[in-house]
Amino acid sequence: MEAFVSELKSSLKNELQLIEQQTDILLDRYRLSAKAVSSIVLQLKDKITNYQFKNSKDEIFFFKKILPDFYSEVIYYSKSFQILTKLSICEREGQKILIREELSSITGYFKEHQELYLYYHLGDNHLDDKYFIRSNEPIQFSYTLFCILDSRFCTEYSCQISNFIAFERVKNDLEIKLALLENQPLSSTVATIPKQLKWKGPKVGLVEFGYASKDAGYLDESFQDIFASFEQLFQIRIENSSRTFQEIIARKKDDPIVMEVLAQKVKQRKEKMNENYTSKK
Is residue 38 part of a domain? Predict the structure, then answer.
C-alpha cells in the first residue's frame, strides 16, 4: 500500500506541475487540475474499496492522513474553479462582495464543525477509532462530490478533514485576492510580515527565481502556491507565469538573466568582503 500511495503522489505531482507549466489561463488550470486529481483519486478508490487493512492503526492512518491529502486537492481545485468562474463575470466591487461572502461561508463551515476542527488541529487521537474506521452505515454529508459517499472508501470524518485542508487553502487565496482588490497591505491573518517589501526588479526575475527554486528542490510547493506567496510578500501581481517562462526560453543567449545578475552580485560582495578583511590585517 505504501508503494502504491507513493506512486500516486508522484504521478499527481508531475501532472499538476505539467498543467501549471502548460496552461496560462488560471480558470483552465483549475479545471484541468481538478480533473487530473479526480482521476488519481478514482485509482485510489479502486484500490481501497475492498482492501483489508492489517490493523486498525493502518486504517486510521489512511483515513486520517492519506485520503484527506488526496481528496482535499479535488475539493480545492473544484471550489477554486467554481469561485473564479463567478468572479470572472463580476466588476471590482462585485468581486469584493463575492469574496467576502465566500470567506464568511468558509468561516461558518469551520464553526459548524468546530469540535472536529479543533480535534484535527490540536492533533488529538482519542476518538480516532470512532472517526477514522470504516463502517457499513451510509454517510450523511453535506458537501457532496462524486466519489466520497461510498462508506467502503472513506469515513464521514475523513471527508470533513479533506474539507478543512481544502477550505483553508481557498480561504488564504481569497484573502490575498481581497487585499489586492482593496489595495491594502495583507493582514496578519494572511501572513506575518515585519515590513512590506518592494520588488524593484523586473517581474520576470521573480518568475526565474520561482522556477529555479522549485526545480532545484529548494521549494516543494506547487508553482501556483510559490507565485501566490511572491505576490503576497512583495505586493505584486504575477500573471501567466508559464507564459513568462516561455518568453525566458525564447530570449537570446546574450540577454541578461536575472538569476545570473544576482549570482554575480553575490560574487562581487564576497570579493569585496575578502578585500576588506585582507586590508585590515
Answer: yes
